[in-house]
Amino acid sequence: MRALFNLPAPAKINWFLHVTGKRPDGYHTLQTVFQFIDWCDTLDLIRRDDGLIHRIGADELPQDDLCVRAARLLQQATQCESGVDIHLRKCIPQQAGLGGGSSDAATVLIGLNRLWRLDLPRAKLMQLALQLGADVPIFIYGRNAWAEGVGEQLQPIDLPTSSFAVVHPARGLSTRAVFSTLDLTTKKPEETIAGFAEWLGEFFAPDGRQKNRHQKSQSKNCQQDDQRSSLCPVWGRNDLQPGAEALEPEVTQALQILHTALMGPLAAHSPTLRSELLFDARMTGSGSAVFALIGASDRSGLPSRHGPSDEVLGGLPDLLPEGWQGRLCKGLREHPLRDWIDA
Ligand SMILES: C[C@@](CO)(OP(=O)(O)O)[C@H](O)COP(=O)(O)OP(=O)(O)OC[C@H]1O[C@@H](n2ccc(N)nc2=O)[C@H](O)[C@@H]1O
Ligand SMILES: Nc1ncnc2c1ncn2[C@@H]1O[C@H](COP(=O)(O)OP(=O)(O)O)[C@@H](O)[C@H]1O
């Protein structure tokens, strides 16, 4: 095999993010739920016989970006003599908390495992992935998951059929800078996957569809803000959000714009959106992107094509300041390349 074309590298959303402590090496321990979404970068991998590793495209990134580092790490770990040209087409905003760089690195590991005929098992690829970043193993794991440790201790979780309205402000945020704002002096109790599953069960039937309007309005967690729709908070919190808002006022602005849009213009103009279960805006990961979860009333109720949906998102892009991005993303059940790794 000489080349692999159009490999997807999907973004992720953190439904919530609880920081539970700090390790001696400076990394923080977390509890979070990761979900893949259909906002994707795309990569081509073309094998080279001279052993060199080059990235082409995404010129704004450092030459030694996560794709190149992933390829080099795999080459060293396996003593592989092949090289690769990596064509990277960036679409996921950077420094967004959407895990774009981590996902690119994971797609390189998965793709080269096939292109270079290495056949490493999932556990080995995840071990290499963790050396590249705390967020990389989830993209190798390939299933939506409850995560602990620094994000590498993963348990699969079935999430409902959902979409996410995602807003990315003009400016991004450094993950390291956001973590450094944390004050861990007051310890909050740790949560359980069962607690999260119980909350999900309030809104969603076991097949992932949202419960009917009557059942929703009974929920103690859902407040009726006006005649049209109700906005519920997603379970838990994002402990990184206050620090991110302090560092970057555009995060606060993005949360407000998305909240207002859901309560007003978007819901008013979209019959589809009006019938959906809406959750209020929250930041993903270390920001600066924010999202609102939208529960689908049925599996065909949302647009299937990639990219913004004119019908559902309506005027969202028009409500955003210049340089911002707004997009309706579908939640994915699993990573598109999950089956590329055997065990
Ligand atoms: C916060 C999360 C939540 O999913 O996502 P993003 O916002 O980056 O997408 C991740 O934990 C980010 O993972 P990742 O982006 O791979 O972080 P890394 O490159 O490993 O770490 C960058 C820096 O962030 C800090 N860091 C990162 C992860 C973690 N659990 N504790 C930390 O303290 C450290 O200062 C580290 O040097
Ligand atoms: N392939 C890549 N795509 C995006 N960012 C990359 C990549 N390789 C290295 N980086 C660096 O990682 C940083 C953050 O990565 P990114 O995944 O965009 O953000 P986040 O971790 O907040 O989701 C960027 O500042 C960028 O310089």
TrEMBL record:
Pfam annotation, one family: GHMP_kinases_N
GO molecular function list = 4-(cytidine 5'-diphospho)-2-C-methyl-D-erythritol kinase activity; ATP binding
Q: Extract one GO BP annotation from the record.
A: isopentenyl diphosphate biosynthetic process, methylerythritol 4-phosphate pathway
Q: Which UniProt keywords apply?
A: ATP-binding, Isoprene biosynthesis, Kinase, Nucleotide-binding, Transferase
Query: What pathway does the UniProt record associate with this protein?
Result: Isoprenoid biosynthesis; isopentenyl diphosphate biosynthesis via DXP pathway; isopentenyl diphosphate from 1-deoxy-D-xylulose 5-phosphate: step 3/6
Please write the reaction equations for the catalytic activity of this protein: 4-CDP-2-C-methyl-D-erythritol + ATP = 4-CDP-2-C-methyl-D-erythritol 2-phosphate + ADP + H(+)
Tell me the domain of life. Bacteria
Q: Where is the GHMP kinase N-terminal domain?
A: 66-143
Its function? Catalyzes the phosphorylation of the position 2 hydroxy group of 4-diphosphocytidyl-2C-methyl-D-erythritol.
What name has this protein been given in UniProt? 4-diphosphocytidyl-2-C-methyl-D-erythritol kinase
